[in-house]
Design brief:
103 residues, 0% strand, disordered C terminus, 434 Repressor (Amino-terminal Domain), mainly alpha
Amino acid sequence: MIDATRRFADNVRARRKALELTQEAAALSVQMDMSYWSRIERAKVDPGVRTVARIVTALETTPAALMADVVIDPGDARADRRDLPQSRSSIAATPATRCNPLT
């Protein structure tokens, strides 16, 4: 299975090339550093939601199109969650309160 970040990067690169844009032109169109754009296309970074929104603007596409054929391994998803910051309330919360934060 191809890594999800690699597949996303390949889709970004393919779309950019289909539009006949350079990395520099694509990056500049959304005020992004060209070296960061390059790292995205080389799958060296895993961009966040705001960055993906900027990419789809530059490439005149949708997030769904860039996520085509991206498969997330459930094991990878669990590992990614460990990296997320936790609030104090979620650390001490019981499973029942995690399900319903309004109680």
